[in-house]
Each structure stands twice: as C-alpha cells, then as structure tokens.
Design brief:
This protein is mainly beta and 406 residues long. 0% of the residues lie in helices and 51% in strands.
C-alpha cells in the first residue's frame, strides 16, 4: 500500500472547534452552536462563547474564503405559519479577531430535517441533504369499486442546491431533487418500528475533492446517487446496494479516488473506487463495524478518513465506540482498535459525529449522551486513539474546526 500524503503540519493561528448541538427540555444550555478554544496538541479545550440559534444545529460547514460558518436548523417546519422557526440553512459570520458568530441570513430548506451541508467555495454553491421524518399520514380514499382504502403518505426527502452571494450569504434556491421510492418496508430493522425505509431519506450530500460531483447517501432506498455539480444538479450515476443496507455517510480519502460509506442498517463500512472523471462508483469491500461475537442492536453513523489516508474511522451507536480501520490500497479494511463512548439511549440519541483537527494530530468526538466533547490523540502509524481531555457541551452533535489568523 502507498504511504499516502503526509499529514499537514499544524498551521499557525488560533484553533477553534464549533460544536453544533440539539436542544433539551431540561437543559437551557443545550442547542445552538458553542465555540471551543482548542490547543494545537488537543490537550486543552476551553469554552469561548455560544449562540442559541439555530437551535437544532446538527451539521456545520466552514468557508474560509468568506469566513462564513453554515449551519442547518434540523427542524420540521410546523405547518402553515410557522409558529416556530422553519427548517433552514443559516449563514453566520466568524469574527477574524475573536471567533464570535454573527448571523448573516438564512434560507428555508424545503424538506424536513436538513441533516447535512456542504459548501463549494470555488463556485459559490451550497448543498444540503434533508432527511424527512419517519411518521406517516393516513389519507382515506374511496376506490373506483366503492370500497374505502387507506393511502399512506410520507415526508419528502430532498437535496437542495443554493447559490452563495459574494459575501457568503445564502442565495436563492437553484435546484431541488426529491428522493423517490422506498426500500424494503417493513424490514428487519428495529428503527422506526421496522419502517426506516418507508420513504427516501437522504442523509448526506458530499462534494468530492475535485468539486465536480455531489454524492448523496439515500438510506431509505439503499442507493448512492451521484450528481454533477453546476448551476443545477445533474444525476449521472446511481449505485444500488443490496436491500436493508442504508448508506448513510460518505467520506473521501485524500487522493480523491477512494471513498468510504457507512451502511447504517447493516452495521458495515464499505470502501469504494470513485472515478473523478465520470462519477462512477465500484464497491471494493465491506466489513462489519462490530467485533466478532457482538449481537446487540447497533447502527454506525459518521465515517472519517485520517489526513494521511491510511486509516478510516467509524462511530458505532449501540456498541458505542469510535473504531479505527486500516485502509489498504486495494480497498480492504481491517479493524485495528476502538475507544468506548458513553452508553447510548438509542441509536438516535448517541454519539453522532467526530472530526480530525487540521493536522490530524487528534480528533474530537461529540459524545451526546455524556454531554461532552472528548479529545483523543491519533497515532498516525498504527491508527490507535488515546484519551486526552474533555469539555462539557450540552447535547453535542457535530464538530467543525476553524483556524483564525495568528
């Protein structure tokens, strides 16, 4: 296997970690976005400031060129009105002097529960994945033969393309893709009472390293959709996985021709060859994210690739771990170790995400059940993780690193 590119050296400047979080009925400090000052070795984390809105900041993305942090507000708009703020994507300006956040604007996101946001700084584009809910609506219809029947209607899941203004503000919608169809329903998963695939559920919209394509994991239809990114989204490739797999999140290696996918309902991670010219995908291998003998419920969530490309990391919700895998050039993955996290309440209330610092020296985990952000040093030679420190953040969901000028 190629050694891959070396991890970049730690840049100069002030390192901040912005932590999006979910609200809580019992903790007024939950929800919104918290900024943490983080030392470059990951050994010291100090809360800096917090904003309360967007209240359900489940995913973030930073555009260095404009100094804008984008955040989804992972709501379902509450009908005609609305009384509460709508599901939306927000732009927040990051102060270059102290990292404080100032709202710039927001745009409503058609489709419930926006769960993912990606930004193309070069062309000024923003993409979101909107998951939808699991609940259904029963519509009573009379058939042509006079009998009465029930039609089940589910939320639309969508992928949205926004333009960005010169100052980084979110511009008008340019394109909307509605996920169509459903998977095996009901199925063997305990999620949503066996109805986790009753409709489409786009859970990620990842821009590939070339900036030419957007990869969407639709866990409701067992598909990975590849769109060419431009003024609109042009579907160029559809990869259909076996049933009850549920591709959730996708992460690229540093060379851009490999990506890795978590299969939520199968508790697996897969490696793919990716053609950066055509957007075509080919599955190379798939491996359980669980150790031999584990039989309790589990659903993997996030997947990240170390900056050196040699290791892939996945967090399990159920086993409640962050697992390290060695990535071979032929696509094979080997589990090499793990660290344990707080026990999950259920897969939807568990450690949800994690991120490497820009140098790959350490990672931060949003350990939601513990109300903690945990830091682990990364051994770039063997992939192992070692606990460093932790900081309290209520209901943390996502971590995005930002470097301010020194």
């Amino acid at each position: 296997m190629s050694e891959g590119p070396a991890a970049p050296a730690a840049p100069e400047g002030r390192l901040l970690a912005y932590v999006g979080s979910y609200p809580s009925d019992t903790d007024p400090t939950a929800g919104g976005i918290t900024a943490l000052d983080v030392s470059w070795d990951g050994r010291k984390i100090t809360p800096a400031h917090r904003i309360a809105e967007p209240r359900e900041a489940g995913h973030l993305a930073y555009a260095e060129s404009t100094g804008i942090l984008y955040a989804v507000d992972e709501r379902k708009t509450d009908g005609r009105g609305p009384v509460q703020p709508p599901a939306a994507v927000h732009a927040l300006s990051v102060s270059r002097s102290d990292g404080n956040l100032t709202p710039v604007n927001f745009r409503v996101a058609p489709g419930p529960r926006p769960t993912y946001v990606s930004v193309d700084q070069r062309r000024g584009l923003l993409v979101t994945a909107n998951h939808g809910d699991f609940e259904h609506v029963e519509k009573v219809r009379q058939a042509e033969d006079g009998t009465w029947q029930v039609e089940y209607v589910y939320d639309d899941s969508t992928v949205l393309l926004f333009g960005l203004e010169a100052d980084g503000a979110v511009g008008p919608l340019r394109d909307v893709k509605v996920m169509e169809g459903h998977g095996k329903d009901p199925n063997s998963s305990p999620q949503a009472g066996g109805h986790a695939q009753s409709s489409g559920h786009a859970h990620c919209a990842v821009i590939d390293p070339s900036g030419d394509f957007v990869l969407v994991g639709d866990k409701g239809t067992d598909r990975i959709l590849v769109y060419r990114l431009g003024d609109t989204l042009e579907l160029v490739h559809t990869h259909q996985t076996p049933p009850e797999i549920a591709p959730r999140h996708i992460a690229f290696g540093p060379e851009g021709d490999r990506c890795y996918v978590t299969y939520e309902l199968a508790s697996e991670v897969a490696s793919y060859a990716f053609d950066p010219e055509t957007g075509a995908l080919e599955e190379l291998s798939r491996l359980s994210t669980l150790p031999e003998g584990y039989s309790a419920p589990n659903e993997p969530a996030e997947v990240r690739v170390h900056p050196n490309g040699r290791f892939v990391y996945v967090n399990n919700r159920g086993e409640d771990t962050v697992v390290a895998f060695r990535a071979e050039r032929d696509g094979e993955l080997t589990r090499v170790g793990h660290v344990s996290l707080a026990p999950s309440v259920h897969p939807g209330l568990a450690a949800r995400s994690f991120a490497f610092d820009p140098s790959g020296t350490f990672l931060l985990v949003a350990d939601r059940p513990a109300d903690l952000v945990r830091a682990y040093t990364v051994d770039s030679e063997v992939g192992s993780l070692t606990p460093l420190t932790e900081a309290r953040v209520a209901q943390p969901a996502f971590v995005e690193f930002v470097v301010l000028p020194g």
